Amino acid sequence: MPAPETLVQTTYAELLERCSAADFRLSFPQQGSFVSKLIKDKRYWYFQEPASEGKAQKYVGPETPELLDLIRRHQEMREDEAERRALISTLIRSFGSPRPSPQGGAVVAALATAGVFRLRGVLIGTTAFQTYPPMLAASLPGARFRTEDVDIAQFRSISVAVADETPPMLDVLKQVDPTFSPVPHQVDGRKVTRYQTDRHFRVDFLTPNEGADTSKPQRLPALRTDAEPLRFLDFLIRDPEPAVVLHGAGIAVLVPQPERFALHKLIVSRRRSSGNPKRDKDLRQAETLLDVLVQKRPFELAQVWHEAYDRGRTWRQLLVEGLAVAVIRPRDLLLRTIEQTRSLLPGVNLIFSNPPARYDFDRDVVVFEGQDTLGGRVQCAISREALEDHFDADDLEPKNRVRKFLDHRSEIEALARSKYLSAPVEEPGSVLIRTEDVPLSRAAQSKTRRS
């Protein structure tokens, strides 16, 4: 029996608050003070270490109500590792929330301790995807998949601006596994964007490619490593959300907004070759997230869709092509959320091959089946009222209503096709012809024939 949604959300919210507080306390000792700076009309906070430490400043973050609350509570925070472990145990054992592999969790923990997420590094990829089930209080098929890599992304502009840095990245990773070694970049062998163990566990560093296309690694001074530039990454890691990786006593990290993650996966799935196994994984992750987000975060999902769609022709093409190959349910639910019709999708059509029709007494409709050319069966139906008002089926018995449908099958199928493609989506993978739909669909077909 699924866990109550509110209980999952409450447990996760408490864990997130405790992990953020513990991470904050470990990053900033009790001795010292917090100071702010106004940079380009935005206030940022730094931690001033005591004079005995040379009065060094550590970057804390941009001012938010949550950050100000952490600063106020800094002196009264206490370690609560046992309580956090209990919350994690509840999320994993009682609610089925996924956790990373032991190696992956240890790597993320080391990165967090080094300050990667405090300095606005963002955890992406499958390890980030695993934080979404408890965040959204939902089960996400595929989230238990164990990956052998960890991906970290950061804007280069942020890396330069924070005026703080981690230890050398290779030193951080060697604390987890001494076999970690740098992998020379293929374009410039003097640069390193990937670190790998002797068992092929990888840690990759990425940064958005916001200028002209380039394959040259970019320096991230705050993380003391180079990073692979990638197109479309800026959309993914803009305005990341705090989250918890369910490892140990919990690791406070930053991850992409789940709605950005889903749409980014649609985009990058179209950028991969057809034989690349990551293409199918990208699409499956997008589909499972979209199925949840249309219910949990419809406003946010619609907002980021329009942001991406308005970025230009290439963005629009990749988005709709990715959506066109998704399975019908999440595809149609997203179209309904963004108030678009199925005609947005390239190559979509509704075809019929004369399967048997039947009368559904519970719904009082004649049911017949169609096939979406992008893949999947479509449940079609026409109401008794529509048959009576427009196809001369007054006072007929159910079996005669089916016969009347068969007499007018070609026109009714055309009406179903017209509504399926051009009317607002009502239910995923289905179309119902009501009496008010018939004149509208007939008018639309007439207009199409004249044009």
**Rg value:** 27 Å
- Biggest sheet statistics: 7 strands, mixed
Which spans have pLDDT < 50 for at least 5 consecutive residues? none
The percentage helix is 40-55%
Distance between the termini: 55 Å
Which features characterize this protein?
alpha+beta; 44% helix; seven-stranded mixed beta sheet; 451 residues; single chain; elongated
How would you explain this protein's 3D organization?
The protein has 451 residues and is of the alpha+beta class. The protein is 44% helix and 19% strand. The chain has helices spanning 5-27, 65-73, 81-94, 102-114, 126-129, 132-136, 156-161, 169-174, 233-237, 258-271, 277-296, 298-309, 313-324, 328-337, 384-390, 398-407, 409-422, 437-450; strands at 33-39, 42-48, 57-62, 122-124, 149-153, 181-184, 192-196, 202-208, 218-220, 225-230, 241-245, 251-255, 350-351, 358-360, 365-372, 377-383, 430-433. Strands 4, 5, 6, 7, 8, 9 and 10 form a seven-stranded mixed beta sheet that branches. The longest helix has 23 residues, at 5-27. The mean pLDDT is 90.
